[in-house]
Amino acid sequence: MEPHDPEPREAPPPPSGKPLGASIVIPAFNERHTIGPIIEGLRALPIDHEIVVVDDGSTDGTAEAARAAGATVIRHPYNIGYGASIRKGVRQAARPVVVLMDADAQHDPGDIARLVEHLEGYDMVVAARPWKAKGLFGRAIAITVLSWMASYIAGRRIPDLTSGLRAIRRQVLLPFLRLLPNGFSASTTMTLALLRAGHPVVFVPWETVRPRSTGASKVTPLRDGLRIVLQIVRIVALFSPLRVFLPVSFLLILFGAVRLFTDVFAWTSRADGHFSLFVGILLLFLGLFADHFSYIRRLPRGDD
């Protein structure tokens, strides 16, 4: 298990020298009013960078506004999803660092250079939003619960599971692109995949999060929350099946053993104790098999 990280913390400053070049990938869907000012702010960054906007089938002129502002634009013929846009943008990126940024103007473009600086010693840095910046009360509660679930799976505290602002080393991210789903749970998958694969990840407190100025959020708490839970289950099966199988099997074996013990002294014969013990042992062996299969899948392939 990875060491517990009690609070998001500041990463050490980078050594003096030339900063890393960054490809800033912005998935966008119907964000015509915000995309232009974001790109204008990004163009003034003091680091080597390129701006890649992935227009996910917008119908309001987002692609044209991004191109006019000076970004490289990739277009989907129709709306495919946030995760699909990330995959397309990362593959198009030409710099060693990929910065993922939302197109809703909630992040200050001037903060990107500071975000990249935090990568020293890490493979991914995530801008962890304060609790009040995670949206309405119900949505903030849902994000917090999902973060708790993910923290248990990852073996360390994850203060912000769904942050849309993060910087990742491109070569580290490429092998995991095939795991990213098309929808909004791509951020969740990316975070858990890198943590469970042993890549160093740091969560940096990020206060410069502004409320959305125009339009409405594309995320629906119920639909996308269920998708994120499903994706967490998939990541568990891929990276850490024993973290689920082992506690459940232990409880069933314990319950079955206690029932069998009491049956012996009470001279009764109940099926529930035998059944619980059998199911617990079966789950234990199933978990061990899943863990072994997971390890084989994570082994480097010839083309990695």
Describe the protein:
The protein has 2 domains: 22-239, Spore Coat Polysaccharide Biosynthesis Protein SpsA, Chain A (Alpha-Beta Complex); 242-298. Helix content is 47%, strand content 12%. The chain is built from 10 helices and 7 strands. Strands 3-2-1-4-6-5-7 form a 7-stranded mixed beta sheet, sandwiched between helices. Strand 1, helix 1 (32-43) and strand 2 (49-55) form a beta-alpha-beta unit. The chain is elongated and about 85 Å long. The protein starts with 21 loop residues before the first strand and ends in a 6-residue tail after the last helix. Residues 1-16 have low confidence and may be disordered.
Task: Draw up the topology in text.
Elements: E1 22-28, H1 32-43, E2 49-55, H2 62-69, E3 72-75, H3 82-92, E4 97-100, H4 112-117, E5 124-128, H5 137-154, E6 166-169, H6 170-173, H7 186-196, E7 201-205, H8 221-239, H9 242-266, H10 271-298
Parallel strand pairs: 1-2, 1-4, 2-3, 5-7
Antiparallel strand pairs: 4-6, 5-6
Helix pairs in contact: 1-2, 5-8, 7-8, 9-10
